[in-house]
Design a protein that fits this description.
The complex is a heterodimer of chains A (336) and B (285). Chain A is mainly α and 336 residues long. In chain A, 76% of the residues lie in helices and 1% in strands. Chain B is an all-alpha fold and 285 residues long. Chain B has one domain: ABC transporter involved in vitamin B12 uptake, BtuC. Chain B is 74% helix and 3% strand. Chain B has eleven helices and two strands, in the order ααααββααααααα. In chain B, strands 1-2 form a two-stranded antiparallel sheet. In chain B, helix 5 packs antiparallel against helix 8. Classes of the chains: A mainly alpha (336), B mainly alpha (285). Chains A and B meet through helix 6, helix 12 and helix 14 of A and helix 4, helix 9 and helix 11 of B.
């Protein structure tokens, strides 16, 4: 298990290079904005939103070791709560605040959903827990399809939500700010004492409990944080699409995406899943004519990464970059 | 009255198939300690190989079904050797690898057979009437074959030397090794059996409902539900649970069609919350 985490490299844990990589990511996004290519910005907007899905998975599954197979549960709950909130709030709240309020409320609702899910889930371990999350997503999807609350589309879809307007540059900058802010906060959280406790629970729950940590409390916290972020991202996605539907929000493919992106970039590093998401979405959107081949390639590469580079491609890159830096500073290369 | 008989009969028929899909899944968990998320993909491959052999090669349906079973019985241990065995000390990697395998198989099937649903002609054509309800012979044969496979498996596990070795392994790995059981051989055997059972289920599900690239997900969730309800690793538990889930599904489909697939999920959620070790299982680990 420990080999999955970047934290096993001690020098990397101490060196806060995550901030540098996040800054690089911000610079790259700004350059893309300055370039201003319509297609590129559209694809990157999508990538930004989906990257938030992946980092929200990572704080629960990569850091805390509670492998979630049903992250679409939080995303779907967030999407639907934001849709219902915007319908209820439209007469009372003016436009920009409406979206902000609905995203925050959706995050809160999904965090609550996370806590409710965590209450039975803290007793479950390993596969049982993953199954629980998978089932929660499937049940929520069924409930939405059956209840059809405020539904204006087919199969429980709600359409015509207030969206960010159709200026692509503007939506892009919102989504970039969203993903960068969330990632920054999660990196800070992950580097804090709480993040260390999350990692301790992942490495050995028994040892963590023996060290006097209330593991149940921290597992619930991890569910709540992950739920909040995923719910807010689901709400953002709903306002971006202007609609919410079981087929866009409660998709098993979203849950699979979170896992594949995190494996590609490096589980348990926050910035790894971020990098994995950009790779995934850029390949998915740029090579559309290849059809299923691109998913096959992505999944095969993810399997290869899982077997041969279990720390993920970004972590490997970080280790090399760090060695280069060390070499440049002390002129004394250290062997890995 | 007709509806009740229909539910009783069809519930029994479909439950037997569910049991078939679930038993292989639970054996792999019990013996290998691996929650094989690619099990739905095994069912899928079984169905598609039969479709391919009967349409592209034009073979007789029974022969095509046999080929599918043999193919999956060979492929499953191969997957064990390549993707599970080398990482046996890293359960999270194995867990994620089986998930990736499942989605890889889906994409391969889309590329080879397209996204449209494919069907297979019935192994045994014709039908008869029981209390005024029309029943296809094919389904009777399917459920009898499923039951026969399970009974055969049960006899094998409880009566033969290798079977007892398998059940010993699932109880206590170290003890089994001390008793001179070759763990590696038994693992391979379990994967062969599990693959073959999944393929049989796949062939019959294809003749019943047709098969599409994402059709492996439903058997996986159903196998999951059954296995959790019955207790992970317990074969009799799976059998009982298969009938509970099968009837729950048939009843909801008959009277509340839009809630189809909901009842088994609800049962699963309740069991996970209140009795995670299942009805017949040992302590959850």
């Amino acid at each position: 298990m420990s080999s999955l985490a970047a934290g096993s490299k001690k020098h990397l844990t101490r060196f806060p290079d995550e901030y540098i990589w996040l800054a690089l990511c911000a610079v790259a996004l700004m350059l893309a904005y300055a370039w201003g290519d319509f297609n590129l910005l559209t694809i990157l907007t999508m990538a930004n939103i989906w990257a938030v899905f992946a980092v929200s998975w990572d704080i629960l599954s990569g850091y805390t070791g509670q492998i979630s197979f049903g992250h679409a549960f939080f995303i779907g709950v967030g999407g639907y709560v934001s849709a219902l909130c915007s319908i209820a709030l439209t007469p009372h709240v003016p436009m920009p605040w409406l979206v902000v309020a609905s995203i925050l409320l959706a995050g809160a609702a999904a965090a609550l959903g996370g806590v409710l899910l965590a209450l039975p889930a803290v007793r479950l371990h390993g596969p049982y827990l993953s199954l629980m999350t998978l089932v929660a997503a499937a049940v929520a999807e069924r409930v939405v399809r059956i209840l059809k609350l405020q539904s204006t589309g087919a199969e429980g879809a709600i359409t015509g939500l207030p969206n960010f307007g159709f200026v692509p540059n503007q939506v892009f900058s919102y989504s970039a700010a969203f993903v960068l802010a969330i990632s920054l906060l999660l990196v800070i959280l992950a580097r804090s004492r709480i993040g260390k406790i999350f990692q301790a629970i992942r490495e050995s729950e028994q040892a963590a409990a023996a060290a006097g940590i209330n593991t149940a409390k921290y597992k619930i916290l991890a569910f709540a944080v992950s739920g909040f972020v995923a719910g807010a991202a689901g709400a953002f996605y709903a306002h971006y699409l202007g609609s919410v539907a079981p087929a866009s929000h409660f998709l098993l493919d979203i849950s699979v995406f979170c896992i594949v992106a995190s494996v590609l970039g490096g589980m348990g590093t926050i910035i790894g899943p971020l990098a994995g998401s950009y790779l995934y979405i850029l390949i998915q959107e740029n090579f559309r004519p290849l059809g299923s081949w691109r998913f096959l390639a992505l999944f095969l590469v993810a399997l290869g990464v899982l077997f041969f580079l279990p720390r993920g491609y970004l972590t490997e890159l970080r280790v090399r970059a760090f060695q280069l830096l060390q070499w440049a500073l002390c002129k004394k290369p250290r062997s890995t | 009255m007709d509806a009740i008989i229909e539910v009783l009969v069809y519930g029994f028929l479909i439950s037997s198939l569910y049991a078939l899909a679930a038993v292989g899944f639970t054996m792999i968990f019990g013996v290998a300690g691996v929650l094989n998320l690619a099990h739905g993909a095994f069912v899928l491959i079984g169905g598609y190989v039969a479709v391919w052999a009967s349409t592209a090669l034009g073979w007789h349906i029974v022969l095509a079904a046999l080929v599918a079973v043999v193919a999956m019985a060979l492929l499953a241990p191969l997957i064990y050797l390549l993707c599970v065995r080398p990482f046996s000390d890293k359960p999270v990697i194995v867990f994620l690898a089986t998930l990736l395998l499942a989605v890889i198989v889906e994409q391969v099937m889309i590329l080879m057979f397209g996204e449209k649903s494919r069907t297979l002609s019935a192994l045994v054509p014709g039908y008869f009437y029981l209390f005024g309800v029309q029943i296809l012979w094919d389904r009777v044969v399917a459920s009898l074959a499923a039951l026969a496979s399970i009974v055969g498996l049960w006899l094998y596990i409880t009566r033969t030397r290798n079977g007892k070795a398998i059940s010993a392994l699932s109880m206590e790995r170290l003890g089994a090794a001390l008793a001179g059981i070759n763990e590696f051989q038994m693992q391979l055997l379990v994967w062969v059996v599990s693959g073959a059972l999944a393929a049989i289920a796949g062939v019959f599900l294809t003749t019943f409902l047709g098969i599409s690239p994402f059709a492996g997900r439903i058997p996986l969730v159903i196998a999951f539900s059954i296995v959790v309800l019955g207790g992970l690793g317990s074969i009799p538990g799976s059998l009982w649970a298969a009938y509970i889930i099968g009837y729950a599904e048939t009843i909801t489909t008959q009277w509340i069609p839009e809630a189809r697939g909901f009842s088994s999920l609800l049962i699963l959620l309740l069991i996970l919350t209140f009795r995670p070790q299942g009805l017949f299982g040992r302590e959850a680990s």
